[in-house]
């Protein structure tokens, strides 16, 4: 029934141009009614396909009923009319095997003789009708969503697009089907064997997961390639690879620092965006996933025919042997297929309407990610894809947790972000996933997407409010002390209400996205010209202070001030309650030249410069970082598993946390609302809310941390009894060497000169400490 000239309401979509209208507009036959290609012109048929099984999904080598080895292939393709399994031999010749068995929308078959190392893909047949969201196109070879390895690189010529990308009438270009074969231009999935099959030894029997408690964790965010590309101790042939990160030269730096976990930027197979390739650049960070089960082949010393799988596993084992957990930064919110003008690589061609959230106009994609599309996590099969992937990386690849990019997009229900969404509910009850570390990036780009503090128990969160408060304090832009007090003490205002603990707050000052720590004190403006986007990319809100000059300078006073500020920032981070996250290279003064969005800088800008350790100043910063981590590990009061109460306890009336003004008096309500450059935090080690493994109460030393962000020295009166009878100076960031003279003691109740822009850490002394010193 026509609603207007040249329009119709067929398929229940009012206002969709009719097939006749499209043909008139583009001079092409009606694409919505395009028939399937004639199979008589297809490549030669492959071996006979047996029925096989719909479970598990993906390609799994196994024995057939007669004992013959082969591979079972299973693909969920809801709404598809037919599926061809495409096998490729060593010469690249394609053999097509129609999968004729269909069980609960899963197309499946067992192919005898297909063994690990064989390359494959799918061609999925169905309607081409973009106005209803149907974008099947059997001319496009598709990557199996469950492929465990990928062989080859993604190039993006016009042939890999399901629509006529170069059609003159751009307003209808994505509605005109492109029937050119994409197989020569896309990588293939690889059949990967199960190492425990048929009695083979389980390579994980010797692996021992560190299982570091949340409260004791120190996370180190790094890029597999960037961390090792310039490392002099890693053999050249291993640099930039999983094997390079597993090399003793790389793990030695991590163990010397004392970090407990590495958080790896995305290692799922990803593709480079077309606009980057056209500018001669590449996606470096990897937030453009296309294979959720496959380790990115470009990070493997041997990334062909599935060898990257074993190399990744060996890397995990090496890190575990060093006492370091492996957390993956995962991107389940969108894929590399982008919006309706993007390439057809996998999910779009398998079932576009099933995998992606579409707008009210089904030709368009809902985009809560800023990357063109959003996975439709409300669909059971999409939810299964994600959870199957997560379990695979835990149980078969050995990882210890995940950081979820734009996690709010995964928590979206039909009408907005919902903390009772199917995704969060499934994770909460899953016997595997609920036991690993789960970290949310608690926002997306959609309306209502900012959800810091809102995720449920089991989840930790990147706490950007910590980042902003600490940056503002040290650049002198914090309006009052309220927010800083909450952030330094574990952010109870954000996490206590839901029953979570201080370790729900992943505290960070820098991350991969934004300035490095050195750039934070060297630049106030972003300098992203090398990205080729006219410096329009990257956030303008950096909350940075360049200490008096933009960029690198020879001025010795500015250089000294910058290094002091770096010491202040690192000390603040590692002495705060919560889980600290460092970014690789911040401890040795890494710079990106002011680029705060180096996502496409797969070069010296994005790689760590290990020669910085030849500079005594940067080497001292590394040593300070390691010393702070050791101090944190040695003192449970610095890594509390429960929030402070702030209540006075008998008999002395001590609080577990007390805040002091420079006058040596406890802060009042009016002090919290007043601008300040200095404050003190007293952390009591008595009666900590935890017990040792034998059930005995845990006690610790008490500490006084003094923070002063002002430009001039300040007199600060040290709290006297009952807080302490004296103090021992442990740390002074105003000193280049940070070492206080041995045995430095300070009198309680007396004023000291607090150096400008400094952090002092003092251990509280009681009568016993003073008596032992005298004796």
TrEMBL record:
InterPro entries: GH, GH13_cat_dom, GlgX_Isoamylase_N_E_set, Glyco_hydro_13_N, Glyco_hydro_b, Glycogen_debranch_GlgX, Ig-like_fold, Ig_E-set. Residues 1-63, 185-208, 528-550 are annotated as: Disordered. Keywords: Glycosidase, Hydrolase. Residues 528-540 have a biased composition (Basic and acidic residues). It holds the Pfam family CBM_48. It comes from the Bacteria. Transmembrane segments: none annotated. Residues 221-632 form the Glycosyl hydrolase family 13 catalytic domain. Belongs to the glycosyl hydrolase 13 family. This is Glycogen debranching protein GlgX. It comes from Streptomyces mordarskii. The lineage of its organism: Bacteria, Bacillati, Actinomycetota, Actinomycetes, Kitasatosporales.
